[in-house]
Amino acid sequence: MPKSKKHYVIEHIFDKLFDTATATLQRTIVSADDIQEAKRAVNKLHNLGIKENSNPFNFMKDIVRGKRALAMWPESVRSKGYVGEQRTGGGAVFEFVPLTDSGETGFEDLFAPSAATPRFHVQSLSISRASKSLGRRDESWLLQVSVNLRIVETHLAVGNDKQIDATEVSHLQMDIKLRKVQIDALFLAHFRSEHGDSAAIITVEAKQQNQRILTEQVGRQVRAAFEATEAELVIPLALASTNEGIYVVEFKAVPRSALKGFLAPAFHREALYLLEPPVRGIQTA
């Protein structure tokens, strides 16, 4: 479905649920059935040609994950104080969420490097020229470069305010597709603790330059990592391509004991790794 037409679907659903007398919604969760019904309705009303058989569970992906999310969200809905957040489970697709701050626009990009972000230089000479010539702007290349240049290992070894005193970090796997979520990469970290040698699973979410880092998405990966392993501690990371290099966001470690009621991780620290020389598809087109 063309991006420019999704606002018709969202507006149709919102208008059906919104009670003008009380200025409240009958319910906030939007289901796959709601999406499909709305597609048929707006096609009939506006002759839009929206594909009615497309997967409704993918409806919100390019809206909430992209940095143009605000431009794609209907102004008529936002002006009434609502934006959207992706939801999963029980047939849910997204939820209308009220804005809590009058200064908010909704869909803010919460994670991006600033002048205060610590910067570290990393060599890229170990990546062959043949590989670099095929560099592209996608998550697979970002992960390949990050693994080859040991970005995760470097991040856990340098900088201030480290959560663990790592003694070994091993890359386990990339592109892990689980039942309800995909984890872009998994690492295993061994570290010193008061109990002696301890271990933690490191989850990695990879983002292109035009995508936002979403804590709820990272949170689902944390839950999936606990379900798929016997780990007692998970440290979530997010990697993003920038014009300067690879931006890493580290979230606070999540112990298994805190899993009940856990939805999304809290920010811990960030760093930007400057690749020298620049790598095509990361810093350059």
Percent helix, as a range, is 25-40%
Number of helices: 9
What integer value in Å does the Rg equal?
21 Å
Oligomer: single chain
Shape: globular
Unreliable spans: none
Quick one: biggest sheet?
8 strands, mixed
Give me the secondary-structure category: alpha+beta
Q: Roughly what fraction of the amino acids lie in strands?
A: 25-35%
Number of DSSP strand runs = 13
Order of helices and strands: HEEEHHHHEEEHHHEEEHEEEE
Give the terminus-to-terminus CA distance.
27 Å
Supply the number of structural domains.
2
Q: What value does the average pLDDT take?
A: 90
Please tag this protein with its features.
single chain, 285 residues, alpha+beta, 8-stranded mixed sheet, 3-stranded antiparallel sheet, 13 strands
Task: Describe it.
It is a single chain. The chain has nine helices and 13 strands. With 285 residues, it is of the alpha+beta class. It is globular. The mean pLDDT is 90. It has helices at 6-17, 32-46, 61-65, 69-72, 75-78, 129-133, 139-148, 151-157, 215-228; strands spanning 18-19, 24-25, 29-31, 82-86, 92-98, 119-123, 165-177, 182-193, 196-207, 233-241, 245-251, 254-255, 267-276. 27% of the residues lie in helices and 31% in strands. The strands form three sheets. Strands 6, 7, 8, 9, 10, 11, 12 and 13 form an eight-stranded mixed sheet that branches. Strands 3-5-4 form a three-stranded antiparallel sheet. Strands 1-2 form a two-stranded antiparallel ribbon. It folds into two domains: 3-98; 119-276, no CATH class.
